[in-house]
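Supplementary Text 2. Reproducibility record for the structural model of the 115-residue chain.

All settings were left at their defaults, and a single model was retained for analysis rather than an ensemble. We include the record here because the model underlies the residue-level annotations in Supplementary Table 4.
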Amino acid sequence: MDQSDDPRELERKIEQATRMASRVTDQTTVERLRAWVEDLKRKLQQHREARRTKQATGARAHELWEQSGRPSGRALEFWASSRVRDQRGRSEIIGVSVGRPRRVPECLDVSIQLP
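Retained model, structure tokens:
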């Protein structure tokens, strides 16, 4: 993990930039600091979500492994299966299909013709 992506480092930078923005009088600098804080918060949220996803994938992989009788040497298989199931679950929440692509209706088929 890159040090700049470490959650504690991101939180420290957020606090520092927020304090600086409250002390600065130049409006342009304040806006830039606030934009930076929002970017840092977004990175922190992405990191936390990725960590939760990884933990959920591991728990699901372990569950699948136990359901299959705890076979040795197949950890990667169960991890991959868990990832696919997690991705399908997330895509169904947002309405995206994962897996076999659907045929595009002719009225929406936009083919690019190169000269």
